[in-house]
Amino acid sequence: MKERFKTARCILYRDDEYLLAVHSSFWYRRDKRWGLPGGQIEWGETPRKTAQRELKEELHVIVPELLEVGAYSYKRALHMVYAAPLTDDIVRYDETELLDIGWFSEPAIESMKADRALHADYELEAIRKLRAELGR
């Protein structure tokens, strides 16, 4: 049976920093949570195409190649995570989709996890897996 994923997310990285975003689903919440860019998989769309589409829509970034990091469970659904290097600065983003974006080091993300400021709680695990795969 083929696995079904609810969302596709992407770890964008440069040097020793990783991009996180606050999605608009936190607009009315007092405690904003940081997560990986990405979103819902549309009917007939592959998780890889979803990640590429969401990066283009949310961050105006085109990423032709994605490295598969793996599947993560959150709220009884599977979410596929990919990764891609990004050397360019993000000069604008869709403010109807994202409330904020930022580049963070792994220690900063560890602190965010400890403070319960991460959206899905698998972000740090996925970043550590990516770093191990890249031999960093």
State the oligomer. Answer: single chain
Cα-to-Cα separation, first versus last residue: 35 Å
What CATH architecture would you give?
A: Alpha-Beta Complex
CATH homolog superfamily: Nucleoside Triphosphate Pyrophosphohydrolase
Specify the biggest β-sheet: 6 strands, mixed
Radius of gyration: 14 Å
Shape: globular
Number of strands: 6
CATH class label: Alpha Beta
What are the key terms here?
single chain; 136 residues; alpha+beta; six-stranded mixed beta sheet
What does this structure look like?
- The protein has 136 residues and is α+β, with helices and mostly antiparallel strands.
- The chain has a single domain, classed as Nucleoside Triphosphate Pyrophosphohydrolase, CATH 3.90.79.10.
- The protein contains three helices and six strands, in the order βββαβββαα.
- Strands 1, 2, 3, 4, 5 and 6 form a six-stranded mixed β-sheet that branches.
- The chain is globular, with a radius of gyration of 14 Å.
- The mean pLDDT is 91.
List the helices and strands and how they pair.
Layout: E1 5-14, E2 17-23, E3 38-40, H1 47-59, E4 67-74, E5 77-85, E6 98-105, H2 106-114, H3 123-134
Helix pairs in contact: 2-3
Q: Brief overview, please?
A:
The protein has 136 residues and is of the alpha+beta class. Helix content is 25%, strand content 33%.
